[in-house]
From TrEMBL:
Signal sequence, start to end: 1-22
Origin: domain of life: Bacteria
Organism ancestry: Bacteria, Bacillati, Actinomycetota, Actinomycetes, Micrococcales
DNA-binding found in the keyword field: no
Record protein name field: Extracellular solute-binding protein
Gene source species: Myceligenerans pegani
CDD domains for this protein: PBP2_AlgQ_like_4
InterPro entries referenced in this protein's UniProt entry, alphabetically: Bact_solute-bd_prot1 (IPR050490), SBP (IPR006059)
UniProt keywords, alphabetically: Signal
Amino acid sequence: MRITRNKAVAASAATALTVTLAACGGGGTDDDGAAAGEIDMESQIGYMEDFEAGTTFTATEPLQFGLLYRDHPNYPFQEDWPILQHLEENQNVTFDFENVPLEDMQQRRSVLISSGEAPEIMPVTYPGDESQFVSGGALLPISDYVQYMPNFQQKVEEWGLQAEIDAQKQEDGKYYMIPGIHEVTIPGAYTIAIRQDLWDDAGLEHPATWDEFAEQLEIIQEENPELDYPMTDRWSINGPIEATLSAAAPNFGTVAGWGYGLGLQWNQDEGVYEYAGGSDEYRDLVGYFAGLVADGLLDPEALTQEDDQAEQKFASGQAAAIGSNDQVILEYRDAFAEIGDDTAEIALLTVPGGPAGDYIAGGTRRESGLMFSAQAAESDHFLAMLQFVDWLYYSDEGLEFAKWGVEGETFERDGDKRVLVDDVTWGALNAGAPKLLNSDFGYYNGVWSLAHGSTEDLDMSMRSDEAVEYIDNMNAVKEELEIPPAVAYDEIEQEQAGLQQTTLQDMTFQATAQFILGDRSMDDWDTWVSELEGAGMQEYVDRANAAAGVTE
């Protein structure tokens, strides 16, 4: 892997919150001298004595695990879902659910953990989510117990994922969140969707760089004067065009939008962290999009509008480009079909390169995973719970079950290929079938299914040919950034850094919108940096560098 530019960046909050582990399996001793990860076997029930990688988990007696369930509005919880019936019949497992609506999940989870009332298993946890709870002692140091999870250990070793797992370690040398994992690099799915028919009419190829993209938007506007703007955008609820800024940021040498995390970018040459929001690289990124707005190429309402409004503008022909991913593009096509437009063709752009190079963020083989309450280790079914989690989330059999369901019920095999049965649909598969794999059966549900899966085969098995081609193109032309040194705060530092982080990020997102919209001139950048300094930016960066073990 090469790093040919001056600034290599940290692309997520998780990266900036973690340090390197000596070994995946934990080990060592607790403060009182007891062996870390030791389980009193005489107290345990329901576990399998012969459980190993590839073994189907079945509890030796009925067990019930506490589980924090994220109730998604797209597939509302149903207690009679087939996935739950099969887990009870085949794995001898049921759940004591703490059901929480999606929109309340973060707040409710925080309250449960802080009060010591969190369920044993907490899925849909993203790298970095755990850090704020570590010092309180309410979370299980899962690194002490992965020795009982043979499927997880096998994949980490065979796929060379140690660095990805290492990135979860906290200041005490343990990790408290176990991520979902991918066999192959999965680039960020967010990019730009364009009206391919308009690009073809103008004789344009897909742009290789963001500058070339701007030139093409200008041509599209000239060729199609009926457009309000050649580009609009979406995903601006919590900050301006967060998905697009996040996707573009690595190629400008910084972090932004959804990838802003702690606001730290890594200076490869100097070997230190810098605050992204006040950096030259962030200025270049913001200046680029400010130029699009100033030149009438980007709809200024994109920075504040609702997603539905953005989609309507695109489908009605008011814009020719919009933020997208491999699922949303299907919604765009449906929207065109609903208004009877059968001429529009839509395509995904490979994320263009930028002044810093052609990169994707590091750590892309990690996925949302799980946290566990500290009380779980006191249960008489603790070992069985570890075995069940290892089977469902990390074994090939469990991963396929959670995603595709049961052969003969929800899918069949056509040679090596899985095919949904005729009356079941998901995404672009079997479009129009009466039953949905997630809402009617409970499968492909983020609570039990780690995104697209784990193995390369399973990762790609439900993706459209278009999505697979996008991933292949991204991997073919882009380098994955290395994960920089991790930042591990102690309890006091975490509290101090957290307060500053919130203040600095709020200021940055507000200023980002102002600069892009032209409400604040880019000539005012030095004044903006002074404002960040006045809000404690240097103190924040110094604390992060000290926690990462580096100095300026």
